[in-house]
Amino acid sequence: MVKICCIGAGYVGGPTMAVIALKCPSFEVVVVDISVSRIAAWNSDQLPIYEPGLDEVVKQCRGKNLFFSTDIEKQVSEADIIFVSVNTPTKTQGLGAGKAADLTYWESAARMIADVSKSNKIVVEKSTVPVKTAEAIEKILTHNGRGIKYQILSNPEFLAEGTAIQDLFHPDRVLIGGRETPDGQKAIQSLKDVYAHWVPEDRIISTNLWSAELSKLAANAFLAQRISSVNAMSALCEATGADVSQVSHAVGKDTRIGPKFLNASVGFGGSCFQKDILNLVYICECNGLPEVANYWKQVIKINDYQKKRFVNRLVSSMFNTVSGKKISILGFAFKKDTGDTRETPAIDVCKGLLGDKAHLCIYDPQVTEDQIRRDLSMNKFDLDHPVHLQPMSPSSVKQVSVVWDAYEAAKDAHGVCILTEWDEFKTLDYQRIFDNMQKPAFVFDGRNIVNVDKLREIGFIVYSIGKPLDPWLKDMPAVA
């Protein structure tokens, strides 16, 4: 029996291993993590992450050939294939601070594998890591190997949160990078054989190690670049009276470009885009490519500009102050169908409003009050670290309340901000919301999901990103 162990029970490790267990019933798959509470949640009815379809997959396999355990050393020593899916946060101090990936967790995982292994292993990078990480891991394992042979593979994940299970069932491609040696090719084939249980052979691509590592960073950088491009256009649309939805539709009809990732919004978020671009910038700088580094830096600058622009539009339209005013925040996750808040634009928007002394009332159907308060009180890069290494009791933000109903959030508010494109926000009774708000009543649609004309008929003053401006907003500064 093939035994697979995955170190790290997060957004990548948990769903990926659940699908492998479902599709490879003859394999034993164990997910391990040092967090006792996280493993307990994976073994309970309330999984630690929200992902459509995940519950069903886990419940079909758990206890049969899918297991969740904190006994890391035992499971690692018994495994044939070890996936490593640990955090790779951005460094906050030292060389490369603010850009380079912190490989502390990766290195400790590699040293632990070397300590406990008694048989040859295939070690698979599943985290998003900087180019040449595999080589570093290989050195640690080889120098501590005591005669045991290790093959290192890079198998970056391309799943998107919110559609992760479908992405795993029907991937565009599975990428496996390995050494161009007989043993390296043999290891690649072993991993190919796992995915071949359900992925067509022509979708399983093999490359050398560094190409696989760089392909992941490149894919995320290209996607983020598209979002920043359409967001840059949204600012121009507002200035000229064009409609960004019409522009992106026309552009997306060009088969060379395509329609995906061309929706203007308050900005991109998630655990990967910003982190991977910063990583790419650092690698370029280290390799003497400042022009290339500056090119990718601009993608992040436009993203930051978009969030700042949104806050400034809001404040300037409300008589240039939100001090003491209740602002309703609908949606805190970085996108719909996930509870993940890493790098969510909502954090920067909320902090911008709190800086102007607004009172925020926040509602998100999948994000807990504890998570929201953590996000608003902690330093930017702290959130990349596992929960047990984050500050235990983040300071409470007094001007924030969290509720479990959109109507409650909007009651007596001066303005409503839509920051996540949850489907339920499209079908809210906006007449009811308007009737219970302070007047003039504002809607700031950071995801372009509301019917602007209908809301204006009700009586709202509406700001929708990249759309022709409400007469109220004309001649007001977009950026302070």
From TrEMBL:
GO terms for molecular function: NAD binding; UDP-glucose 6-dehydrogenase activity. Residues 328-452 form the UDP-glucose/GDP-mannose dehydrogenase C-terminal domain. This is UDP-glucose 6-dehydrogenase. GO terms for cellular component: nucleus. It comes from the Eukaryota. Its EC number is 1.1.1.22. InterPro entries: 6-PGluconate_DH-like_C_sf (IPR008927), NAD(P)-bd_dom_sf (IPR036291), UDP-Glc/GDP-Man (IPR017476), UDP-Glc/GDP-Man_DH_C (IPR014027), UDP-Glc/GDP-Man_DH_C_sf (IPR036220), UDP-Glc/GDP-Man_DH_dimer (IPR014026), UDP-Glc/GDP-Man_DH_N (IPR001732), UDPglc_DH_euk (IPR028356). Keywords: NAD, Oxidoreductase. NAD(+) binds at residues 8-13, 33, 38, 86-90, 127-128, 161, 272-275, 342. The active site is at residue 272. The lineage of its organism: Eukaryota, Viridiplantae, Streptophyta, Embryophyta, Tracheophyta. Pfam families: UDPG_MGDP_dh (PF00984), UDPG_MGDP_dh_C (PF03720), UDPG_MGDP_dh_N (PF03721). Pathway: Nucleotide-sugar biosynthesis; UDP-alpha-D-glucuronate biosynthesis; UDP-alpha-D-glucuronate from UDP-alpha-D-glucose: step 1/1. SMART domains: UDPG_MGDP_dh_C. GO terms for biological process: glycosaminoglycan biosynthetic process; UDP-glucuronate biosynthetic process. It catalyses: UDP-alpha-D-glucose + 2 NAD(+) + H2O = UDP-alpha-D-glucuronate + 2 NADH + 3 H(+). Belongs to the UDP-glucose/GDP-mannose dehydrogenase family.
